[in-house]
Amino acid sequence: MLALIFTLLQVLSTQASVQPQRTQEVLALVDQVRALPPEFRADTLLRLSDSALVTETTWKQELIEEAFWSGAHASLPYPQWADRRSDSVAENAVRQNRLEALTLQIRAVHAMLALDPQKALRLYEQIQAPMLPKLECSTVFTPVVLDYYQTAVFVFESGFTPKQRKQGDDIRFLQRLIASVQSPSQVSPALEMIFAVKVSPTQRLDLLSLFAAELQGISRSDREYGATETALVSAVAPDRLQPSEAGVLLPSLRYYVVRHVSGRRCTDNIPPSGKIAKSAEGFNVLAAKFDPAGDRYKPISAEEAKPLADDGSYQEN
């Protein structure tokens, strides 16, 4: 049925040189779409809203909002990444196809931003913040929520009126997102968001202070942490930080890194003999830029970064 609907969509779009509003053919097509499973319904409604078949702005918005709420019921909650060392069956089970609930709702927000930024803001704020489970080393899959935080940057830039900005609603929007960070999978994307938004130096320092406070309380499994080490090093590249910002972020970042790399680590995340974890190396490079002597920001030593124990892994095929 889905293939038939896409065929009809293409045919009608080809025929729509001068498009009357809400034709019976398109209304009937929308009714057929509503019989699809929620993820395919949302995906098709978004495609339809962006097609030549729908020219009325109000109707586009209606279809986008319907897609947003349909997408919330998709079977997969958010994109996931499967370690490539695992078997292809497991990897294919979570291959990102942009039909996850979070992805579909983010797509709807982007579609609405082009039509009504204020409505896009309201939609974004109704997305359930990702609730990410604690994962064991035997788990192959880890969450990917980068789009959630990247989209927040666009919403921040265009979703607030001058009056709302004057009242500080835009900054409170970012603060709520930062305060909801609870997993290593969210740490790097949230930090990327802080560096991407256009705010004053004082505002960025305040946001980093809040982020640093949240970082102090995050302690999760190595399957979650290990999947984010490379992204964490990239997110805190030395050229992104001012000295005052480093003073706020680095102590908490050091504590966060040491707590995780010195705990029980998954077999596949344990560094080779003579090496320390890549996130510890990254921290040391960052600290050395702001404090070459190591007096204020002490480098993470090999002893501090030594894993407590091997916590096993998933079975490779």
Defining key terms:
flat, 16 helices, 317 residues, two-stranded parallel sheet, mainly alpha
Given as residue ranges, the uncertain stretches (5+ residues, pLDDT < 50) are none
Strands in their spatial order, largest beta sheet: 1-2
The strand count comes to 4
Q: What is the radius of gyration computed over CA atoms, rounded to a whole number of angstroms?
A: 23 Å
- The percentage of residues in β strands lies in under 5%
Number of domains: 2
Name the shape in a single word. flat
Task: List the total number of helices.
Answer: 16
Outline of the structure:
The chain is built from 16 helices and 4 strands. By secondary structure, the protein is mainly alpha-helical. Helix 16 links the parallel strand 3 and strand 4.
Overview of this protein structure:
This protein has 2 domains: 1-7 and 30-128, no CATH class; 149-310. The model has no long low-confidence stretch (mean pLDDT 90). Strand 3, helix 16 (278-290) and strand 4 (309-310) form a beta-alpha-beta unit. The chain has helices at 2-15, 24-33, 38-49, 57-71, 88-93, 101-113, 117-125, 146-158, 162-166, 169-179, 184-196, 201-216, 222-226, 229-235, 243-261, 278-290, and strands at 80-82, 141-143, 264-265, 309-310. The relative contact order is 0.08. The protein has 16 helices and 4 strands. It is flat and about 70 Å long. It has 317 residues and is mainly alpha-helical. Strands 1-2 form a two-stranded antiparallel sheet. The longest helix is centred in the C-terminal third of the chain and has 19 residues, at 243-261. 57% of the residues lie in helices and 3% in strands.
